[in-house]
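Tutorial, part two.
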Amino acid sequence: MSDVTVRFLGSGDAFGSGGRLQACILLRCSAGAFLLDCGSSSLIAMKHFGVDPADIRAILVTHLHGDHFGGIPFFLLDAQFSRRVQPLAVAGPPGVEARIKDAMEVLFPGSSQTERRFETTFVELEPGKTTDLGGVSFEPFEVDHASGAPPYALRVACDEKVIAYSGDTEWTESLIEASRDADLFVCEAYFFDKRVKYHLDYSTLAQHRTELGCRRLVLTHMSADMLEHLSDIDAVCAEDGMELTV
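Running the prediction step on this input gives:
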């Protein structure tokens, strides 16, 4: 059984609280390298932490907000200019391909129509359906976060390990299923104890901790409010660049 490494290239919220970069998590396993989310700052994060974008086989997107998918236009353009040849898969909610193309046209008009040297495949994920990609399988679970398309938590299986990721969501029972028996559950904790629609606070998560069947829990996507309460939190909190072995 091989180890899986999980590296937080971006652990911040949409607004750069604490100087942190936007959501981007790197998974490495025997099947290769994969990204969970690719926020607008992700290409910067990869180059800062010495990650070669050409190594990335697939990008798995939880939902269609800019701090979770907005780095993909930059990733695709960089891949074209650096003469990438390895195929790339981008998987996400229904409409992911159209949203990325629209973003590319806003940022760099004409760029979505440029013929690439590498094959780019877009996959629309559906709850209850597991997608396999060369040794890695992933299953989405619909959560509660308005983003113009169904938002997902993701459950990723590789090398007999399971990594679950909440994306952005308020508390919902689907997080229990997504994290069941997971070796690692990466979960949003946006506020400390303030409850807001579409986001999860640490206090609520702590109340449900015994319902989560995960072996390890790591918090991410923290606002300035959460960062001010780090000494009050009984859980591991992600930082940009932090790496875990699963």
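The mean pLDDT is 97. In part three we will examine how such features are distributed along the chain.
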